[in-house]
């Protein structure tokens, strides 16, 4: 009897703790949910304006995303998700240190090029090959992130401006390098990488798709980044710098070193993204000037993920899924660019979410007060 | 020598765009708001501006086109008349120490006279140009640029609202704008006309300006093979210089970018001032977008080739000063021209470098300038900071 009571008590306590934790999580991700909701709502309105009949099924397709295509679709979603998660992680990691790494695109491009270069020109045995290519891509991204970091730390150059410049330098360098070293004149693209440089594929699980172990690498890296950020002294220093640069300086931390470390790590994540995206046979880089869009996706992923590595993982999966959804949405009369508009609105709403919540709260209070008054009036009668 | 002239004339094309957009950026950044949304604003402005040009070139005009023409013309005419009246009023106050509303009889007469003349002038101009079918080429161009300006201004208000009133991170809301504009352009264009390109048929280049192009050196340099936007850009440069350095608004603007709290304590409404500045920068960027498309291409294809970001580089290179911006725009424009036409220059062609090398130079130069001269940079002190009255 007594024992039963005790168990009941424990169950009650556990459920209450769980509910509490869930509620806490809900409060934390509320701004992201708000942003996603508003983004989809505005997307829906735009779709309704242009073609009212197809709008709702199209939105459904969009939300179902990669699952439209069965296992193949899921596999392709996972392939697309890995680079977005990593660029999102790159932006989020820099964000926690108070830096805005808009140059994830450039870092990713350099990572992608170096990985392709090694994949095409080097001839290394088996597994060794892709590991080397992957690590080299990571290193290239790190170097590309290090430069704005150094500029910021040593001569206080705004990292946003510096990274934008680095993006454009990377875009032009990419074309120069491709034309020089790994050019395929027939298609005016980079050459295919060798089989041995390809990341191991998951074709047995997701037949017909380009899914590879990139997603697992991304998850491992996210976990490592989480540990670095939250469980080590280094991470504590980085987050302290993010909260207040002068404050952490006053506390005796080396803020300059922190800036450089954060940007280098951030760049290396973006470089990995590039290596993962292009260490697949059949994925080539063209020679028309382009800044990779994944870097900008990274910004939205980081914002949706609230600047947390774990958040970036889920936000990246979500974003890749609705991007795949936009691909399947083409069967209706809509252009897939609708997704960019939705993402833009999501970013915008996340940016103003703090102010929005204050406004909502104020209106909520007003409505409450109004209802109270009405009730009192009724009771008075 | 012909090659040199050609190079210089081609430099003007890129220079014009960079100058206009960077001057817009100057206004926003001097007020303390970073505006990296210039690229997106340019794209949206170019989209609707070029669309207006496309529509104006298709005659006979429908009622809708007529209506749009009238609305755009009316907005700008009213704006110009407002500016002129405002200037007159200010002049009167400075001269006689009057309060704005109590005017002497004689001055009232002067205002009425000037406004009357203006109205007649506008009416005659409208009758001469707007009722023709089709419109004269240059009028179409100016209409297109104006449309771009209006659209850019409205779009920039979105950024201004977020970053000033809603206290959002300026870079983030600008990124959202940059992402939205091309997507919207592609989506709308494909939906309405089954293709994302918007073509226009005329070439707006003026081959020779009648009398002026006969002057020996100057005629060749400034008055042949030139776009009307070139003169517009120079006029805007002068205007911005006067606004920023010689007007009350400019003084407040600079104060707002340097130390908004001090400015606020002296009774300046920071929010309003910044909102105006960002909106103006949007107008400039929108015009720049249209100018870019009409002078470099024969259709709008949802890109402004990174000129928005390049304009930010120009702004930094020019050290946030109008004169510096002019120099930087010339340098950047020259580099762009060389990248596009190095094959016509025997010396550069022999070097055997690709065009990307020349494209790289402006960005690397900006980075170097940033790295080594940031100590004496004149960047506004409060640039990128969110202004909150409650903060210390």
Quick tags:
heterodimer, A: 381 residues, mainly alpha, two-stranded antiparallel sheet, B: mainly alpha, two-stranded antiparallel ribbon, 4 strands, 3% strand, globular
| Mean pLDDT reading of chain A | 86
Give the class of chain A from helix and strand content and strand pairing. mainly alpha
Helix content of chain B: over 70%
**Percent helix of chain A:** over 70%
Q: Could you walk me through the main structural features you see in this protein, from its secondary elements to its overall organization?
A:
The complex is a heterodimer of chains A (381) and B (392). Chain A is an all-alpha fold. Chain A is built from 14 helices and two strands, in the order H-H-H-H-H-H-E-E-H-H-H-H-H-H-H-H. In chain A, strand 1 and strand 2 form a beta hairpin. Chain A starts with a helix and ends with a helix. The mean pLDDT of chain A is 86. Helices cover 73% and strands 3% of the residues of chain B. Chain B has 392 residues and is mostly helical. Chain B starts with a helix and ends in a 19-residue tail after the last helix. The radius of gyration of chain B is 22 Å and the shape is globular. The mean pLDDT of chain B is 83. At the A-B interface, helix 5, helix 6, helix 11, helix 13 and helix 14 of A face helix 5, helix 6, helix 12 and helix 15 of B.
């Amino acid at each position: 009897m007594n024992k039963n009571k005790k168990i009941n008590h424990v169950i009650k306590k556990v459920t209450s703790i769980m509910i509490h934790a869930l509620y806490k999580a809900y409060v934390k991700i509320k701004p992201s949910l708000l942003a996603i909701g508003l983004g989809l709502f505005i997307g829906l309105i735009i779709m309704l304006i242009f073609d009212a009949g197809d709008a709702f099924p199209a939105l459904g397709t969009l939300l179902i995303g990669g699952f439209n295509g069965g296992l193949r679709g899921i596999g392709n979603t996972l392939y697309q998700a890995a680079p977005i998660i990593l660029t999102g992680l790159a932006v989020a990691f820099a964000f926690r240190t108070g830096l805005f790494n808009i140059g994830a695109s450039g870092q990713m491009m350099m990572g992608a090029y170096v990985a392709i270069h090694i994949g095409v020109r080097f001839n290394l045995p088996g597994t060794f090959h892709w590991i080397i290519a992957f690590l080299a891509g990571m290193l290239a991204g790190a170097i590309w992130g290090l430069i704005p970091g150094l500029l910021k730390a040593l001569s206080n150059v705004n990292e946003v401006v510096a990274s934008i410049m680095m993006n454009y330098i990377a875009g032009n360098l990419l074309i120069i390098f491709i034309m020089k070293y790994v050019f395929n004149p027939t298609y005016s693209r980079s050459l295919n990488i060798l089989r041995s440089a390809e990341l191991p594929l998951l074709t047995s699980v997701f037949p017909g798709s380009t899914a590879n172990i990139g997603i697992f690498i991304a998850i491992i890296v996210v976990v490592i980044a989480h540990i670095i950020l939250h469980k080590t002294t280094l991470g504590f220093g980085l987050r302290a710098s993010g909260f207040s640069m002068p404050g952490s300086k006053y506390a005796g931390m080396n803020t300059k070193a922190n800036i450089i470390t954060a940007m280098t790590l951030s760049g290396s994540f973006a470089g990995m993204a590039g290596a993962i995206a292009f260490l697949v046979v059949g994925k080539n880089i063209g020679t028309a000037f382009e800044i990779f869009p994944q870097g900008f996706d990274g910004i939205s992923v980081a914002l949706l993920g609230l600047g947390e590595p774990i958040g970036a993982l889920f936000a990246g999966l979500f974003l890749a899924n609705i991007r795949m959804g936009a691909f399947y949405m083409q069967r209706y009369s809509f252009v897939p660019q609708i997704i960019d508009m939705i993402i833009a609105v999501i970013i915008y709403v996340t940016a103003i979410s703090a102010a929005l919540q204050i406004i909502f709260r104020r209106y909520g209070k007003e409505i409450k007060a109004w209802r109270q008054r009405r009730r009192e009036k009724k009771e008075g009668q | 020598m012909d090659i040199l002239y050609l190079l210089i004339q081609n430099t003007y094309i890129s220079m014009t765009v960079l100058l206009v957009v960077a001057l817009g950026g100057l206004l926003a950044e001097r007020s303390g708001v970073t505006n990296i949304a210039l690229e997106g604003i340019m794209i949206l402005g170019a989209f609707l501006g070029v669309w207006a040009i496309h529509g104006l070139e298709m005659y006979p005009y429908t009622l809708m086109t007529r209506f749009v023409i009238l609305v755009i013309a009316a907005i700008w005419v009213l704006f110009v008349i407002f500016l002129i009246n405002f200037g007159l009023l200010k002049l009167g106050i400075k001269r006689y120490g009057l309060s704005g509303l109590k005017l002497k009889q004689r001055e009232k007469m002067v205002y009425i006279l000037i406004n009357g003349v203006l109205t007649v002038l506008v009416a005659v101009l409208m009758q001469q140009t707007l009722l023709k079918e089709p419109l004269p080429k240059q009028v179409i161009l100016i209409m297109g640029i104006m449309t771009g300006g209006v659209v850019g201004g409205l779009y920039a208000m979105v950024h201004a609202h977020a970053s000033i009133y809603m206290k959002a991170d300026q870079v983030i809301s600008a990124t959202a704008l940059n992402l939205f504009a091309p997507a919207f352009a592609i989506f709308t264009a494909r939906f309405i006309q089954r293709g994302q390109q918007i073509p226009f048929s005329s070439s707006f280049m003026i081959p020779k300006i009648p009398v002026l192009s006969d002057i020996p050196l100057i005629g060749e340099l400034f008055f042949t093979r030139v776009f009307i936007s070139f003169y517009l850009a120079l006029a805007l440069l002068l205007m911005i210089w006067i606004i920023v350095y010689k007007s009350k608004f400019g003084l407040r603007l600079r104060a707002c970018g340097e130390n908004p709290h001090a400015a606020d304590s002296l009774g300046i409404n920071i929010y309003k001032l910044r909102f105006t500045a960002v909106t103006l920068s949007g107008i400039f960027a929108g015009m720049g977008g249209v100018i870019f498309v009409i002078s470099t291409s024969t259709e709008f294809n949802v890109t402004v080739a990174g000129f928005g970001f390049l304009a930010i580089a120009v702004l930094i290179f020019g050290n946030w000063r109008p004169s510096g911006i002019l120099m930087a725009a010339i340098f950047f424009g020259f580099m762009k021209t060389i990248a596009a036409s190095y094959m016509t220059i025997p010396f550069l062609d022999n070097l055997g470098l690709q065009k990307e090398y020349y494209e790289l130079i402006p960005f690397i130069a900006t980075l170097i300038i940033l790295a080594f001269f940031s100590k004496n940079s004149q960047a506004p002190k409060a640039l990128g900071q969110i202004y909150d009255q409650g903060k210390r």
